[in-house]
Specification:
Elements (H helix, E strand, L loop, with lengths): L5 H10 L5 E5 L6 H16 L6 E5 L11 H11 L7 E6 L7 E2 L17 E2 L1 H8 L5 E7 L9 H4 L4 E5 L5 H8 L3 H11 L3 H5 L3 H23 L5 H13 L7 H12 L5 H13 L3 E8 L4 E11 L2 H7 L7 H15 L3 E13 L2 E14 L4 E7 L5 H12 L6 E6 L6 E2 L5 E4 H6 L6
Parallel strand pairs: 1-6, 1-7, 2-3, 3-6, 8-10, 12-13, 13-15
Antiparallel strand pairs: 4-5, 8-9, 10-11, 11-12, 14-15
Amino acid sequence: MIIERAQYIKSLLAKRWNGRVKIITGIRRCGKSFLLSTLYKNYLLGEGVDEDCIIQVALDRKSDLKYRNPNVLYDYIISATKDTSKRYYVFIDEIQMSVKVKNQDIDDRDVSGDDSDMLYVTFYDILNDLMTHNNLDIYVTGSNSKMLSSDIVTNFRDRGSEIKVFPLSFKEYYEASGLEKADAFEEYLTYGGMPLAVQEREQTERQHYLYQLHKNVYAKDIVERYKIRDDEILDALIDSLYSAVGSLTNTHNLANAASTLMRRSVSDHTIKNYIDYLEDAYLFVSAKRYDIKGKKYFNNTQKYYAIDTGLRNAKLNFRQQEKSHIMENMIFMELIRRGYRVDVGVVELNREIAGKRTISRYEIDFIVNTGHDKIYIQSALNVDTEEKKNQETFSLKKSGDFFRKVVILDGNSKPWVDDDGIMYIGVIPFLLDESIFA
């Protein structure tokens, strides 16, 4: 089964021959390599691009291990693209596996300690050089945001274009599944969108694949990359974060939770570092807490969401299947996938309770920043009673502004608007209609 991933092909086509290196990032096994080496390549071939004008290197393959040396990789690409009358597409897969090597042209004695990085050649150096060749259009994939995303501006000198790839969206999953919408939603809620898991139709095998993927790929990667000596702390932290998706937390609370699970003390500093590692590996995405009326961010609390609900559920052995939390996670990731900047909203009200003035805080699940506008979103399983409806919409009504307000409900209900101008829509049509906020 081939899932076309049209959204990403469209993004690649929009950026080709723009003079920048196209940097395709995302969690391992989400389909980056297949997108580039199969889907995009087939598209180019279908356009009439000659196959010998598509140069491919995969640094995770044994046959291409020598190209982990950036100098060897550079020499190969220059040799393979020496016909300057042709235009070439260069695909380099898993670029984070490239190593830095000693620069033989620089004498150590000529370089101060502050400039020690100049003693080495890295993949950034060769890509910046290759970008000056007008007949090369360069694409790289990578699974480590620290080596790519956060360094794009600095190391590519503003000549890098990032394309973030996620596990399959519900829309992609539904179109490939052949299931009814409600059945597809329940499966997606449980097993997520990792491509190989989606293609495994046997339930036990799917669960086993997701569990082993989490254990033997993601957790192992993090332990090896950061030389973590005590992976029990990391494991306890992952369980705490997965158990608390959709809940406000901070490093101190997470340290206490991990300490409780392990029955020994864990420092806030260690937890902060480990959270950075988990986000760096794309296992989690964080959302900051924003005071709507005070127009400021809270620095001490935020939420963490799992990149994929299937990985989350597998790590927890498919326990803790609270639909409200998992649905909230799914909505958040869909908003991120669509390119929105998303915060967690807080409305502070000065109220009189039992004769005393007090400040109360009410949560808005998501503030969606569209660039020129904002949208406030609540995730709720239902509003089937007036009391429940008032509970879910109270913070929306108290925001004190006129931005659009939406409640996303469980199920397949079509959008409707109440007398207060609040839109209600089922989670299924929300996930299937990417233009819902256009």
